[in-house]
Specification:
This protein is α/β, with parallel strands linked by helices. It has 13 helices and eleven strands.
């Protein structure tokens, strides 16, 4: 029996990492990669493959199966999900029959509440915690563009079988995915959330890319205020984050492509639905819950809502 891995969501994250998995295991006798997609994306990938554009090269890969039909997809051993946070419940509803009690689910979303939301829907399953650092986006259905060399995938769990965690890590490593199996997965996910929440909120509010945030003192001050507010919320929640988390996050941003921006900002510019509820409003709500003031987040939320 092959180990069957489903990729739910072929956007910048799911499309890129799913593409690397599809390339590595196309002719595998032990692993099958199933891309779960619908509409124009399903049609494009089925006909032309999944195209990934890098800075100096590109590749086209063909997953073992591209489908949105649960009967075709069948039961999955692992499910890697990377849709937008506002689509979590609806996307899982459409493939619930593909999830067996032993299916291990790895969420790779921008927010921090995905594991909890999925666990409520599938209480019998092991739901990991995970996050990625990458600048990638959809160019067209079935075409993903990745900018810059930086890419890291982190995942872990306090209750998952160690053998399954190591098996997944081995699957990633054999596909040349830079992945890290971490013990403190909640803190790791929150470190990423601090980075992306402040960036998404600032770029969307100020209508600036990363360079426009870092190279303008007033814009940078807004960004740093957001970092301080969200870090205070994390501290109130009892998370053991590094004392210099704000400085570390700024360094991460300085290493990012200056002409890049957040996916929420790109969605806003394209008049698409945004993840403001998960990336901005969530911080305001958690601040209220734990008695932490978040005035800049509130101001941005009022504008973006």
């Amino acid at each position: 029996m092959k180990t069957r891995i489903g990729i739910l969501g072929l956007g910048g994250v799911g499309g890129y990492f799913g593409g690397l998995l599809a390339k590595a295991y196309f002719d595998s006798d032990t692993i099958e990669i199933v891309c779960i997609a619908r509409g124009e994306t399903q049609k494009a990938v089925a006909q032309n493959g999944l195209k990934i554009i890098l800075d100096e090269s590109e590749m086209t890969v063909f997953p073992n199966l591209v489908s949105n039909n649960p009967n075709e997809i069948g039961k999955l051993d692992y499910l890697i999900c990377a849709t937008k946070t506002y689509d979590i419940e609806s996307s899982f509803e459409s493939i619930k029959n593909c999830i067996a009690p032993n299916t291990i689910i790895l969420p790779l979303y921008n927010g921090v509440d995905a594991t909890e939301r999925i666990q409520i829907a599938f209480p019998e399953n092991v739901v990991l915690q995970g996050c990625v650092y990458i600048v990638s986006m959809i160019v067209a259905p079935g075409i993903i563009k990745k900018i810059g060399p930086y890419e890291k995938l982190f995942f872990g769990s306090k209750n998952a079988p160690v053998s399954k965690l190591k098996e997944l890590q081995s699957i990633f490593e054999n596909a040349s995915i830079e992945s890290y199996l971490v013990e403190n997965s909640e803190e790791t996910v929150w470190e990423k959330f601090i980075f992306i929440s402040a960036l998404a909120s600032a770029t969307s509010y100020l209508n600036q890319n990363i360079g426009g945030i870092l190279n303008n003192p007033e814009n940078k001050a807004v960004y740093i205020s957001l970092l301080n507010e969200i870090t205070a919320v994390a501290s109130a929640k009892g998370l053991a984050l590094p004392n210099d988390i704000v400085a570390q996050t700024i360094i991460k941003l300085e290493k990012s492509p200056q002409d890049a921006t957040s996916s929420m900002h790109r969605d806003l510019l394209a008049n698409r639905k945004t993840e403001v509820n998960s990336l901005t409003e969530y911080v305001v709500k958690e601040g209220l819950k734990y008695g932490v003031a978040t005035p800049i987040y509130k101001k941005i939320l009022e504008k973006l809502s």
